[in-house]
Every structure is written in C-alpha cells, then in structure tokens.
Design brief:
The chain is an alpha/beta fold and about 270 residues long. About 55% of the residues lie in helices and about 10% in strands. The chain has a single domain (about 30-265), classed as Collagenase (Catalytic Domain), CATH 3.40.390.10. It has a four-stranded mixed β-sheet. A two-stranded antiparallel sheet has the order 3-4.
C-alpha cells in the first residue's frame, strides 16, 4: 500500500508541475502577444517580404502577435560561416513561417525549438556517407534548417512558387503527429476522407505529368512522395494561388480550408 501511495503522490506532483508550467507558459505567451512589432520591424517586413505586405489589414495584428511568440519561443543558431542570425533575418523567417499558423488552428509547430541557419546551400552526409547539397530540412526532433541565401530569394520573389521557409515549415505541420506523410492533423475528423481523396488524386496526376515531361504549376519536386507534395502544394498555394485554383481547384479548396486563408483575395486587400 505504501508503494501505491508513493506512486500516486509522484503522479499527482508531476501533473501539478506540468499544469503550472503550462499556465506560466500561456501567461508569458499572452504578454508577448500583446507587445507590438516596432515601426522599423513592420517597415522592413513590408519592404522585404511581399507576402507579409499583401496580408489583409484585418489579419495584421494576429500575424504580428504570432511573429512575436515565434521569436520568443524559437531559438536561432548560425551555422557554417554565418556569424550571426540578425533580428532582420529572424523576422523574415518568422513572418513567412507564421503564415502557416495564422488561421490554421495550430498555435505552434509542435516540437520546434530551433532554426539553424547556414549562409548558403550546405552539404550533408547520410548514414552511408553519401554527400548531398541541401537548401533546407525539417527535423522531427525539433529543428528546421535553412539556407539564408535561399530564404532571401524566396522572400523577395513571392510569385515563383518556390519558398524554402514555407516548404520546410509545411513539413513541420505535417510532422506534428511525428510522421511526415502528407497527412497533417486536420481541424475536423470528418475532413480526412475528402482530404485524402483530393491529395491522392492530385499527387498521382503530378506523377503522371512529370513522367511524361509535362510542366505544371506545381514544382516537379512534389512528385517525390506525399510529404513533399504537401510542402510543394503549400508553397504554390501561397505564391501562385490564381494558377493553382485555375488548374487544381479541388486542391486549392482543401488547402484554403486547412490554412483558413484565401491568398487569391490578398491582391486588393493588402495592408
């Protein structure tokens, strides 16, 4: 009996500690959310991140609040020859990552704790010692890796469908349940059948087109596997919404529902 009592005390104590930790974290998050970005920060983002500038005015305050929370809770680490991840660099990365959280129902990127930034494309070795060059990675262990040169290119050109920040953080959402399979956690369980059907059909269509050498609005890399298809589709959704809606209407509608946003309407409503 004594052993059972001790076990109960330990469980209750652990639960209380976890509860208090969550309360403190939520309280701090509310405080951070209430702190506005500076005029200098907003001006820089308007100039260097067209997707941020294009957001409807009504979404502006929520976007800025999410950026502040991201900067508070996620660490940035310079890698390779990069000496520092400046505030400007952090803001440019955070503003694009937070597009995916803005109205999707996700409060955060799961286990994400750090963003590792290289100055340019970087080299990695797999378990067999084979080298490859990367522009970005998303790890289930809590990190995203980015090439700053690719980040700059992607943020400047918001219409080419290529954005390494959006791509890798789409993987983070996909990995929320621990598996990268192109099936993120949806708002409603009833949405899964339609999501799976549309995604499967769209992925298979891309596979067929790529095998025949036919170009499409979706980058060919999306044909790699369902996880990459989801990430590429997300890039296209935010950067080429009109073309995606015209050529893959069902896919566009699924992503619109998932992210709770309609980039097609942003052109005339930008703040």
């Amino acid at each position: 009996m004594e052993g059972i009592a001790i076990f109960i005390v330990i469980v209750v104590s652990a639960g209380l500690v976890a509860f208090l930790y969550r309360r403190i974290k939520l309280s701090k998050r509310r405080e951070v959310r209430a702190t506005p970005l500076t005029k200098e920060d907003c001006s820089m983002l308007h100039e260097k991140v067209p997707l941020y500038a294009a957001l409807p005015g009504a979404l502006g305050p929520e976007m800025d609040a999410r950026i502040q929370v991201f900067l508070h809770e996620v660490g940035f680490e310079p890698c390779g020859r990069l000496e520092e991840v400046t505030r400007e660099m952090q803001l440019i990365i955070a503003s694009q990552a937070c597009l995916l959280l803005l109205a999707s129902g996700y409060d955060h990127f799961g286990r994400l704790r750090s963003v590792l930034v290289y100055p340019d494309a970087y080299e990695v070795r797999d378990e067999l010692g084979i080298k490859s060059i990367r522009l970005g990675e998303s790890w289930t262990s809590g990190s995203v890796v980015l090439s700053w040169q690719s980040v700059k290119q992607g943020s400047r050109n918001a219409e080419d469908g290529l954005n390494v920040v959006i791509h890798e953080f789409a993987h983070q959402l996909d990995q929320f349940n621990g598996v990268a399979d192109g099936l993120p956690v949806l708002k409603d369980r009833a949405d899964y059948p339609e999501w799976a059907s549309v995604m499967r059909a769209s992925f298979e269509e891309l596979l067929e087109r790529v095998s025949k050498g036919r170009r499409t609005v979706l980058d060919d890399y999306g044909a790699t596997n369902p996880a990459e298809f989801f990430a590429v589709s997300t890039e296209t959704f935010f950067e080429k919404p009109r073309q995606l809606e015209e050529t893959h209407s069902a896919l566009y509608q699924q992503l619109k529902r998932f992210y709770g946003l309609d980039p097609l309407s942003w052109g005339s409503e930008g703040r």
